[in-house]
Please model this.
Amino acid sequence: MDHQLIQRAAEDILNSKKTIAFTGAGISVESGIPDFRGAQGLWQKYDPEEYAHIHAFYSNPDRVWLMLKDMFSLIMTAKPNPAHMGLAELERMGYLSSVITQNVDGLHQAAGSRNVIEFHGTHRTLSCLKCSTTIDGTSLKMEDLPPRCSRCSSLLKPDIVFFGESIPWEAQVLSFKESKSCSVVLSIGTSAVVYPAASIPMTAKERGAIVIEINMEPTPLTDQISDYLISGSAGEIIPAIVDQVKRSSKPR
Ligand code: OAD
Model:
């Protein structure tokens, strides 16, 4: 871990009027949920065109639910890791305005983050595409999957954004409001290749914000958009930044 960059990030956060975090699947890898595009990623096992496109859900929901079952079995037992905890602590200390996450696992909220914007929806609720009934998914048992609508018995779809679907309107509006008004973005554990999510750090950069990347490897943001990349695991880097912020901060 590069301690000079940790210190630089802490100083940038301390000098910032408003800091936001933009997170992707990489932040939950240390909670046991694989990312999408890595060597162990979900898209190595399942072709997203066949399993994650909304047309695939309409044409073959049973097959799509095989992938969802795989994903849900990990999400439902996962616990937040030190990276999620660190961001929640930064918010409590008054140094983080919001977390915009592409993840649907709810681990930021479980760690105690309050202002979480779920850009790609959530696994916690499911809806019927035929009659629009919505149910709470948190108490679903693995043996109840795939779940059916109690009103019309169609297969339910989790309220996560599939390829070909639009971003929840409120999440999109709030996210771009945050990205246009912040001075620092922490872009954590995302390959930044899926749009419109990936334009969040870019929008902030266009307005003069500092973009700090925390990732195991470079991404399309690195060198183009990011001011610097802190290489390594989010579970080590975020707590180190939070510790440094605490050491250098005056009470707010
Ligand atoms: P990806 O799988 O594309 O990228 C994960 C990123 O996290 C990679 O850049 C990894 O290098 C990095 N990473 C892995 N482990 C890490 C760790 N411990 N610490 C820090 N970084 C780590 O996941 P996303 O960028 O979230 O959308 O993918 C974006 C969207 O693509 C997802 O929301 C999902 C997917 O298709 C939809 O399904 C609509």
Q: What stands out?
A: Residues 24-26, 29-30, 35-38, 41, 48, 52, 102, 120, 161, 163, 189-191, 194, 214-217, 219, 233-234 surround 2'-O-acetyl adenosine-5-diphosphoribose (CB under 6 Å). The domain at 1-33+78-120+167-252 is CATH 3.40.50.1220 (Rossmann fold).
